[in-house]
Amino acid sequence: MSVKWDKSQLVVAAEALRAGKLVAFPTETVYGLGADATNPSAVKSVYTAKGRPSDNPLIVHIARPEEVLHYTESIPPVASLLMKEFWPGPLTLIFKLKPNALGKEVTGGMETVAFRMPDNEVTLALIEATGRPLVGPSANTSGKPSPTTAEHVLHDLQGKIAGVVDDGATRVGVESTVLDLSSDVPTILRPGAITLEMLKPLVPEVVEDTHLKNQEAAPKAPGMKYKHYAPDTQVVMVASEDWPSVKEWLQTTPLNVGLLATASIYESLDKNKIVWFSLGNRDSVSTALSHLYAGLRDLDEIEPKLDVILAEMMPEEHEGVAYMNRLKKAANYQYFNEWSQENEKI
Question: Is 286 annotated among the ligand-binding residues?
Fold first, then answer.
């Protein structure tokens, strides 16, 4: 049985990590699945617990910025600026790896390594108590929505890990922004709460990756595979102009329908036809972002099971880029106007 610890029991959790066991920990983004990054056997068990492909690199979590120097040749000036501005925080930086500094289990066999200093005092104290850096992919079954509470972690990984340190619900709600500094052009490989607009003043040349199109290639950052963050229930995205069509469709469909949307959308539909999880108000994309995974998980657990989850799309700007990045992968790029026609349900 996996146990739940509170912040007063960090010594126990740290002992488990030093012994090569798996311990889930809270961050400001999502809960991470922790293992000693210097212990190859422990890191391998992360992949087993998650059912995660071994070519997917892991992010190394540290408690102090200077720890990066143990594993890289140097810290570029731009990295120093970013670390000063955004660490601790939801920004992961990819560096060139010092030869043999970390095992291929951590790097996915690549010559780069990703680091983050999470903005969570409990986990920073846990890393310090362990005395070693921790890998920390999301503490869930691979491909499913990431966990934003300790209960989500235990739902997926009960019996597969030693325990989880409970610090309540996470604030940001989606994984960190991943910025690759190992090549000539700094590139955002995964969008998050640290947006392109926030990075530009410090890194004017930064660009956004269009996403990994070749599914056979090794990803440089987690979450770059095609379908990801997905519940078992089919997720279908709805553009703003398609809600009138949804309203008509709801009148005749025999399906059990979940709605992941803001309050204004919910109010415009027949409430007797849907099960709703609120994304907050339309003018707060950050709220929608923080509720996305919890909503996907909550609606996926409804009994009787839902047939489809209709999810509200957001403008792809600022934090909306991260929101849509996760939603598109959760829905496997299924849009209501196409899905309804293909399934003859409109």
Answer: no
Residue pLDDT, tens place only, 256-274 = 999 999 999 999 999 999 9
Please check if 211 is assigned to a binding site. no
287 is in an annotated binding site: no
User: pTM surpassing 0.85?
Assistant: yes
Helix, strand counts (H, E) of the chain? 12, 15
Known binding residue 107? Answer is no
How many structural domains does the chain have? Answer: 2
Do 280 and 146 lie in a common domain?
no
Residue 103 tokens read as 């095992």
64 annotated ligand-binding residue = no
Specify the residue for token string 């997917």.
56
Q: Is 41 annotated as a binding residue?
A: no
Q: Which domain holds residue 316?
A: 234-343
Residue 116 assigned to a binding site:
yes
For residue 123, report the phi and psi dihedrals to the nearest 5 degrees: -75, -35
| Tokens describing residue 335 | 């849009």
Tell whether residue 190 is among the known ligand binding residues.
yes
Residues 6+ away with beta carbon under 8 Å from 167: 7, 26, 120, 122, 123, 150
Taking a C-beta distance cutoff of 8 angstroms, is the pair 28, 170 a contact? Answer: yes
Looking at the fold, whether 22 and 61 belong to one and the same domain comes out as: yes
39 is in an annotated binding site: no
Residue 26 lies in a domain: yes
**What are 23-35's pLDDT values in tens digits?**
999 999 999 999 9
**176 annotated among ligand-binding-site residues:** yes
One domain, residues 196 and 103: yes
Cα 90–chain centre separation = 11
DSSP three-state, residue 166:
coil
Pair (49, 135) in one structural domain: yes
Among 208, 242, 258, the domain-final residue is 208
61 assigned binding-site residue: yes
Q: Domain of 87: which CATH number?
A: 3.90.870.10
